[in-house]
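Why does residue order matter? Because the sequence determines the fold. Keep that principle in mind as you read this record.
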Amino acid sequence: MRKIKMYLVFRAFLMRYVLNRIIAFVPSWFIRRSYMKFLGAEIGNHSRIDMGVYFKDIRKNLKIGDYVHINQDSIFLCSGGIEIGNNVSISYRVGLFSDEHDIQSSDFAYISSKIKIEDYVWIAANATILSGKNGITIGKGAVVCAGAIVTKNVEPFSIVAGVPAKVIGKRKENLEYYPLKGIFAGFM
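Structure:
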């Protein structure tokens, strides 16, 4: 029993402290990516996570597609699962919360559910995505404006803003860009 407890403490140390306090600030995407894959995250080709992003529970709960750019100081609580499609841009200080507490529960019950972000989505700075009890999907090509708090599904190609986020417009549907094109221009 003691060995199992020590193993769990060591695993938590590797997944939380080492990842978020040491590896997250190593100025090498190759090292950060390798460590995250070692911990069980799936990360696609030509994707990049900047320094200083905080992750919780990525083991088998984090899937990132191709050409995804996640900017610094974002927070990913992955217990319920976070799946990110291809060609997605996640700006500075975005929060993706797939786990939370049920505020209506008498015992403050812990709940978790999946966040799915489809292809060509842009989540602007300081936006927050809350999965709630039933999970949430940000549809293909959608834009979540800066500072928005998303608590419901976002339809494809919608532009949402506000607290709580509401549709304020539509986006063109013929999207063919790579968020990291400037960074990987010589490699494409």
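The mean pLDDT is 90.
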